[in-house]
Write a structure and sequence with these properties.
heterodimer; A: 101 residues; mainly alpha; B: mainly alpha
Amino acid sequence: MHVYPMSSYTPAAISFILFTLAAAGFLTCGSLVRMLMFLELMLNAANIAMVTLGPATASQAYAAMLFAIAAAEAGVGLALIITLASVFKTLETGNIKGLRG
Amino acid sequence: MILAASIYFFAALAAAATLLMVFQRNPVKAALLMLTALLSTAGLYLAFNAQLLAVLQIILYAGAIMTLFIIALTVTPQAWRDRPSPGRARLVLGLAAAALILAELLKVSAGLRQLALSPGFAETGALALARELFGRFAFQFELLSLVILASIVGAVTLAAKKGG
């Protein structure tokens, strides 16, 4: 039963395009919050590839676990960003010159 | 047919939102474009018959993570003052690197053209998913609670250092 008139290449290409667009944003933007946003989008695109290309149930179970990991990562990342903002008074990566403890 | 159409529609929507986000100056507008991309990803999951994942995507990504981002933007006024003005060389280099990655990925995965999209997709309910999570992947699932605990402890430690 083929309900999808497309090969496996199409979802892979969708995921790759979304991933590289997010990677382009990650590489070009200068703000830390924005970089974290693009990081989440990259993880999201990788999730699409895993859900669509793997065996149905197992890959969806792993994708559900990855959602939790993404949430944990966003929480820690934003806590780090708020701390950095209060220490350096800036969120531009170009202005953060030295990291001292 | 309608499945294929909706797949292409949601993929194009997500790609357009991400592309607009790259060139968006206002951080809150960028966050809303990210919300658009995440919601269209939920639509994509729905079109690929992953109903539970679509719901989880809306609750976790579009609900929890977006709220976190909006709050982080609110409590860091520095994010507003900073003028994101990447140099032209940096912009060109970043886009070129991303284009290179895309070309390589598409070239490597060209073998997937021969593979039909797996027909086992048709019915994957919450019950089958729960059987996997609490049966075969029980160890990974429990390990995940440790990851979340570590992230909670880390976030609380980072937040507490500022006050005391």
